[in-house]
Design brief:
220 residues, alpha/beta, Rossmann fold, DNA polymerase, domain 1, 2 domains, two-stranded antiparallel sheet, 8 strands, binds 2-phosphoglycolic acid, binds magnesium ion, hydrolase, carbohydrate metabolism
Length: 220
């Protein structure tokens, strides 16, 4: 089977390092930092959008965006995994899936450079066959193109997409792919507000869901 995961809020609790990068920029501008909940609520549409939201929250003119975006990006690229950690159960699940012969992809709106570096620093990269970042194509999720590209690179096989947010539920629907919702990530709405076929609170629950889909596919 081909299983594609979203990154921020799904495989990795990545908000702390994003907060540090954004707050280093704000500090350089002589402005107050933003708290983790606020930064977390800005995650989902990629780093440029996050920086745009940070500028708005602190009353900085959008004309400053090019310079301040570059700052946040450079701070973040230098340290994407100092404080961020995989959600509990993620390393074991990825090891198990890859030992069972499943192919694994990551489709994230995060730029590809810090996405790959983070996966490497957190010792997850060896389980992952394909990474498609938010800057790989002109379109970002919820446009279905990046998700289609990720599955295309994984090759033929039954598809499952795993994500944590409104954007992920929407992209799965747009791409016509079965969707499993990680309920402990960065979504804003209640679980019922996000269309999903499967859901799980802990990664220990996802293995059996994938086993059942694989069995069902083999029997069909
Ligand atoms: O970078 C973001 O804003 C979101 O990243 P994600 O697609 O991995 O959740
Ligand atoms: Mg996410």
């Amino acid at each position: 089977m081909n299983i594609v995961f979203d990154l921020d809020g799904t495989l990795v609790d990545s908000a702390p390092d994003i907060m540090v990068a954004a707050n280093r920029m704000l500090d350089g501008e002589g402005l107050e930092p933003l708290d983790l909940a606020t930064i977390t609520s800005f995650i989902g549409n990629g780093l440029p959008k996050l920086v745009e939201r940070v500028l708005r929250a602190r009353g900085i003119a959008q004309s400053q965006f090019p310079r301040l975006y570059d700052e946040v990006r450079d701070f973040y690229n230098a340290a994407p995994a100092d404080e961020s950690r995989p959600f509990p159960g993620v390393p074991d699940l990825l090891a198990e899936l890859s030992a069972k012969g499943h192919r694994i992809g990551v489709c994230t709106n995060k730029p590809e450079e810090p996405a790959r570096l983070m996966l490497k620093l957190l010792h997850l990269e060896n389980f992952i066959d394909v990474v498609v970042g938010g800057d790989a194509l002109p379109e970002k999720k919820p446009h279905p193109a990046p998700l289609h590209l990720t599955f295309e690179r994984l090759g033929e096989g039954e598809k499952l997409y795993v994500g944590d947010s409104e954007i992920d539920a929407e992209v799965a629907l747009a791409a016509g792919v079965r969707f499993a919702l990680h309920t402990q990530g960065y979504r804003k709405k209640a679980v019922e507000g996000l269309p999903h076929e499967f859901r799980f609170d802990r990664f220990e629950e996802l293995g059996p869901i994938i086993d059942a889909i694989a069995e069902e596919t083999a029997a069909a």
